[in-house]
Write the structure tokens for this entry.
Amino acid sequence: MATYDQGFYATQADGSYRSARVVLAHLREILPFASAIDVGCGAGTWVKALLELGAEDVLGIDGEYARSVLRIPHERFLAHDLRQPVNLDRRFDLALSLEVAEHLPAERAAGFVADLVCLAPAVLFSAAIPLQGGTNHVNERWQHEWARLFADHGYRPFDVIRPRVWTDERVEPWYRQNTLLFLTQGHPQTDRVAQAEREGPRPLSLVHPSVYPLGYNIDNIVLLAKMIFWSVARRTRRLRGRRKPMSARANETR
């Protein structure tokens, strides 16, 4: 995983912090928690929001390079290369990993999910979808692919955040698009979270993976290319026709 400098965090930290305050306020209403760990915390914006919301036992973990940009007390931070397994001798009520997993190699995906479920019975998870784009995105996947990895550990996804923030412009688009809550089987708050999922609003603007992006289907690429070609060709012929001298047009009509 590449290291990230102050410029990288400067461009996204404010939006991340603003998003965290909104998302975590919704989550706290649905799922009470007293302790939390943010895996891939960057500058610590989500840790800062957790502390401000009243959580006292909070830790952020990321590469050593993040230490110079931290917006949280250094004692709330643990330096660790996330390409390597995360082994802590404790668990938290909640683990967070938001727009981090896409920065890790594909072969790390299963192990990274295994690390998260070892850290907490509830995981708030967000990762970039295909073609989302971003700095050093090397493993963009659809949510159902991540859900399969969580399911291997008995964790079930609940779509309780996205419907509540889908149109909230205070929240960055990638969090609105990608954030899911995973609970372990038998979690004491499962019924409460399931009810919140049923009662939550449903966004209308959804995109199915089979039709987005077009790049996933070579036939669609060919079709799109043909449509563009013939559209340009027709427009070119029309423009050429308009540029003909009046005498030439008159001769064509005789």
Observations:
- The radius of gyration is 24 Å.
